[in-house]
Amino acid sequence: MADKAMTIRQRALGFLARREYSRQELKRKLAPHAEDEAEVDALLEDFQKRGWLSEARFAEQIVHARRAKFGTQRIVQELREKGVGEEAIGAVLPELKDSELETARAVWAKKFGQAPMDAKEKARQVRFLASRGFRMDVIFRVLGQDED
Fold first, then answer.
1. Burial profile 69-87: b = 16 or more Cβ within 10 angstroms, e = fewer
2. What's the number of domains the chain is made of?
3. Is the Cβ–Cβ distance between 53 and 16 less than 8 Å?
4. pLDDT of 91-147, one tens digit each?
5. Does this model's pTM top 0.85?
6. What are phi and psi of 20, to 5 degrees?
7. CATH number at residue 35
8. CB-based burial label for 126 (10 Å; 0-12, 13-18, 19+)
9. Dihedrals phi, psi of 64, to nearest 5 degrees
10. Contact predicate 36/22, CB 8 Å
């Protein structure tokens, strides 16, 4: 049994050595290799106490990786899906919102580069930016309807 626990611990350390994980993700990856759920929970609790498993670092990593392509709404949704708590999400939210307009402009310029010529093209551009998780007020500013 001690051998099995050591294997799970080594597995968890191997995962964390490659990248940050949310508690929920790491638990899901370790569960098939554990004898019971309590064993995994105890290990994850220990890792959190030691600072090896951190929701804040995980949230920062996701923001850093996604901010050049996606809007605040999409990134926040991904964080929630991965089990990140509202406190950690709230900590990265101001940083995301501050850069959302410039990110949306960069994404729009790369994909389209010119203002829509008709309502159909405008709707297509709005849908594209909305699918990337940008808020509607930001989208309309990018498309020049509320130029700053």
1. ebbbbbbbebbeebbbbee
2. 1
3. yes
4. 999 988 888 999 999 999 999 988 899 999 999 999 999 999 999 999 999 998 644
5. no
6. -75, 150
7. 1.10.10.10
8. middle
9. -60, -40
10. no
